[in-house]
Amino acid sequence: MKTFLLASLTLAASAIAADKIKVLIVDGQNNHQWKMTTPVLKQILEEPGIFSVDVSTSPEKGKGIESWQPKFSEYAVVVSNFNGEPWSAATKDAFEKFVAGGGGFVAVHAADNSFPEWPAYNEMIGVGGWGGRNEKSGPYLRLRDGKWTFDTTPGSGGSHGKQHEFNLNSGAPEHPIMQGLPEVFRHRQDELYNRLRGPAKNVTILASAFSPKEMGGSGELEPMLMAIPFGKGRVFHDALGHGAEAVHCVAFAVTLQRGTEWAATGKVTQKVPADFPDDQESKARP
Ligand code: ZN
């Protein structure tokens, strides 16, 4: 009787897990506080009840990254909180096959600093920063006369000014990730990346933010949330999420939840919460 009961409980638990979208967060190296932000990302993703979330942490820098081989193919979507050493050829190959074959990928903040030397990765993220990126990496994305255009002006890729609160402007209200969100909504204090550049193939700018010159920015609207196809896969590039204020924010959490579901399935089934911010006041999360 006892055995039977245990067996049915185990079965029930695995059936419930099987219904959920399997998410793998990768971290372990980052010039940001990944040990603080990964648990927040995990908590944000577990809240809607539609994801099951695992974390794969790489060895520390110089301690054997080449032996790290996360099992990407066991997941629907990979969320990267990683900015560090190049992955092994086998891990890179497995990751490319995973996304090209229909897997989802979500790049959070400094994940877009990673791997300037890896062409497929740069196609996935569309644009990136630092690591020697420059005009050879591809154009900047600039809004001109209402259209996002390629700016091939020579210069480095990736910069930011002082952290501050800012508004996000929806650029694709019909996209599943943005449907039902206000046209303009406020994000808590964050590092507003500017002058990212890269191959920028087929990038849909879901949301942008103005980077003020007086805060050390570019004086331009900068892409913040992006959707990029890669083979049969979908990439959600989220340039937000520098530190504690930025990740404890309703705008950050909701767009991460929606972007992760879209990257995994191509759809968004989540409702926009009633406390979603407008353009006047950002909303903190516990
Ligand atoms: Zn940062």
Describe this protein's structure.
The protein has 286 residues and is of the alpha/beta class. It has one domain (75-279): 3-Layer(aba) Sandwich (Rossmann fold). Helix content is 24%, strand content 27%. The chain is built from six helices and 13 strands. Strands 2-1-3-4-13-12-11-8-9 form a nine-stranded mixed sheet. Strands 5-6 form a two-stranded antiparallel ribbon. The protein has a two-stranded antiparallel sheet with strand order 7-10. A hairpin with an 8-residue loop joins strand 11 and strand 12. The radius of gyration is 19 Å and the shape is globular. It binds zinc ion (ZN). Zinc ion is lined by residues 32, 109-110, 191, 242. The site of zinc ion has 5 residues, from loops.
Calculate the terminal CA-CA distance, rounded to whole Å: 44 Å
CATH class assignment: Alpha Beta
The CATH architecture: 3-Layer(aba) Sandwich
Count of the domains: 1
Report the bound ligands by name, code or SMILES. zinc ion
Strand order of the largest sheet: 2-1-3-4-13-12-11-8-9
Task: Give the oligomer, counting copies of the same chain as homo and different chains as hetero.
Answer: single chain
Helix content: 10-25%
Count of individual helical segments: 6
- Largest sheet features: 9 strands, mixed
Structural class: alpha/beta
Question: CATH homologous superfamily name?
Answer: Class I glutamine amidotransferase (GATase) domain
